[in-house]
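Bump. Still looking for CFA47 protein structure tokens.
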Amino acid sequence: MYLNNSPSRYMLKLSGTLSSPKINFHPPFLMLMPVPLGVETEAVVTIVPQDFIRQSRIRVRLPELELADGTKTCPFSVKFPKGQNIVLSSDGTANELTCHISFRSSKPMSFLGEMLFIDQEDNRFSFQVAGTADNCLLTLYPYLALHRSDQKVIWRS
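Sorry for the wait, here they are.
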């Protein structure tokens, strides 16, 4: 090291802490209401980024399910109504993102899996999600109770 153009023997010791980026989800997992076949259910999840040092764009890897007949399906979809970019403010905090997660299936299924939210640096953040589609009155009771004026149930013996 040179000090005032003269060689000096000073030892500099630098230390610091770098935190890995994190994402918190509110709610921390999602259990969607069971719905009839072909009916969509949706919920809103807030994504709270922490310790990001630069802007990043989030992408999502959705779970795929193999049905009994061998076909593969992805009953979930994701939308970001206000965008997918994590933007840092002047004080270093990152904006929250709003994510709409929906589930729909034309075949009976009950599924628990994980969605992966991935930033531009390939950091992966896991989010548990569950959904059920069926036409059984016992399974669908909460849905039917909530939508009783929209539905017509016919009993046959």
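The chain has one helix and 14 strands.

Edit: fixed formatting.
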